[in-house]
Design goal:
The chain has 345 residues and is an alpha/beta fold.
């Protein structure tokens, strides 16, 4: 695929400045510092009716300045102007489609089925790569051939791209991943072709926790490492699946855990902490229910989590969430007021 310079791409819409509108990553050398060729990297962007974000996502991939890149945009038949945006960038895409699919997992799998790279990643159509992200990851893989998956950190932004906060992930630990203590940020994650194919790709029956399911299946067989640098920007907005349909995440996490604990190759030390792991997933489910205003389901999920693993209640923010769920915001305010009176009165 031909890698464009900023001057070759369509001009940015009026008023858009900075990365990736008026800034680019300088073109990397044709070969790596040791003289070997860069590994081919294949990126897939699944997209459906997110025209307001899609162009920025595409530019953040194309302007990486990476010498051996494949880029596929898999659109699910958008009707909001997304296709017109994709067509603007067709000369620099390896391939694209706009057709009805069976969900995000299906679209991503279809993209990777066309890919020839050694390193895979998908970038959703409302997220961005940061400058130098692909080059940093490719160089890490080249220096650590024993590693099959790498994840970095992310910046969170609002709908308009304004910075909210930086999210620094924890170093990799399989138990922490299963218990949801370790959150691997999907936009900042890259994995080898061989491990993706070995675990059968994404489960097309999962629509919200397909990334967690994939990380777990890779973690059972392959080496995963944390690259402590910001690789991507995750956009938080009301139409994002993780916000609008957050209540569906928990049940899919539990489905993956059921599969894990039925696996005969699961290490014995993981079986010992089964209740703690399920408790973590139930807490995530509760948060999703709470954010989606399914309060009775949130309460039930939180109570199940605490019954399975009582120390869970002392984890960061858990007690506050419980009080909000059972007492409401006004009840939480009254409780805090009472505590202050008892302390100072």
């Amino acid at each position: 695929m031909y890698i464009p310079n900023l001057s070759e791409l369509p001009p940015s819409p009026l008023g858009n400045v900075g990365w990736p509108w008026t800034e680019e990553t300088p073109q990397l050398p044709k070969v790596m510092p040791d003289g070997s060729p860069w590994p081919r990297v294949s990126i897939v962007t699944p997209s459906y009716n997110q025209a307001q974000f899609l162009e920025e996502t595409i530019r953040s991939v194309l302007l990486q300045g990476y010498p051996d890149l494949e880029y596929f945009v898999m659109d699910g038949g958008s009707t909001d102007g997304s296709v017109e945006i994709i067509q603007k960038y067709t000369p620099w895409l390896t391939g694209w489609v706009s057709e009805e699919d069976k969900g995000q997992s299906n679209a991503i799998n279809k993209g990777f089925a066309r890919a020839t790279g050694r390193i895979f990643a998908w970038l959703n159509s409302d997220d961005l790569y940061m400058p130098y992200a692909i080059g940093l990851v490719a160089e890490y893989f080249a220096k650590h051939p024993e590693v099959d998956m790498v994840y970095g950190d992310i910046n969170r932004s609002d709908e308009n791209g304004n910075h909210i906060r930086q999210f620094e992930s924890l170093d990799y630990n399989f138990k922490d991943l299963l218990s949801s203590r370790l959150v691997i940020p999907q936009p900042a994650t890259f994995f080898s072709r061989r491990c993706f194919e070995a675990v059968g790709g994404l489960d097309r029956n999962l629509f919200h926790a397909m990334d967690f399911d994939l990380w777990v299946k890779i973690g059972l067989q392959f080496t995963i490492c944390h690259l402590k640098t910001i690789l991507a920007q995750f956009r938080v907005h009301t139409n994002a699946k993780s916000v609008a349909q957050g209540y569906t995440v928990g049940p899919e996490l539990l489905k993956t855990l059921d599969w894990v604990f039925a696996n005969p190759d699961l290490p014995p030390e993981i079986h010992v902490v089964r209740d703690e792991i399920y408790s973590g997933a139930l807490m995530v489910a509760g948060v999703g229910y709470y954010a989606s205003l399914h309060l009775s389901q949130a309460q039930a999920s939180f109570l199940r989590a605490i019954r399975l693993h009582p120390p869970q209640i002392w984890q960061s923010d858990v007690l506050t969430l419980l009080l909000r769920t059972f007492l409401g915001r006004r009840g939480l305010y009254l409780l805090r007021t009472l505590k202050k009176k008892l302390k100072f009165g």
